[in-house]
Amino acid sequence: MNIKCIKNRINQMNNEEVIPSLCEILGKHIDEEIDWFELGQEYIVYAITFHKNIPFFCVLDEVGSLMETCAYFYEVIDGRFSRYWQFGYMSGNQESDTPCIAFKEWAEDMMFHEKVLDDYPKEVEIFSRYKKLMDEEFD
Fold it and tell me: Which of 46, 67, 68, 95 has its CA 20 to 30 A from that of 74?
């Protein structure tokens, strides 16, 4: 899946019902700029998670850090799901966990994203392997 950044402020959202939850999740004021991603830039999506029923794309930011970013800030350029994705609840309990569409190891581990950010060798190697496969898939 490929996406392009088209918005960088919460007040640019068309869905009024989403705005309060999005401000809370992001810890941002409605008029504040979301400066994690560049307008017009395209990104490959490595996973999709949901927080308070709001979809978030997991992409690499400008410096190569794995980040979750609200789907409502993006236009979908290529909507195909990766062949490596599956649906899951990040620790297997659908009543209390975050739904996730990702490769198996991520979809089954609610801490996978944090482990990659914290440089856990096993998780970094797993992510790197899938990243290469998905980069080739959507290049």
Answer: 95
